[in-house]
Amino acid sequence: MIVSQAKLHIESGDIQGIIDPSLHEEFDIQSIWKIAENALMCVQLQRHMRPLISEVLKEIQDAITIERVAAVAAREGNSDERLMA
């Protein structure tokens, strides 16, 4: 049920529909999309369609890098990198 609901939101482009409101929009939307798309790949029914754990780890590391770059940009006054609702 949760996977189905998340998949509907992601496929329709409504990523905000699945984001925890307690995050207070303190994230970069690009990293959220990266994690969401990766999560969808991890729940594929066919085993051969799922990514290797090393690929999942790399995607998570990439998302963390995006967040760090966005945080630096926000501290320097360039908040365009952050999600604005």
Automatic annotation (TrEMBL):
It comes from the Eukaryota. Gene3D superfamilies: Transferase(Phosphotransferase) domain 1. This is Uncharacterized protein. It comes from Lithocarpus litseifolius. The lineage of its organism: Eukaryota, Viridiplantae, Streptophyta, Embryophyta, Tracheophyta.
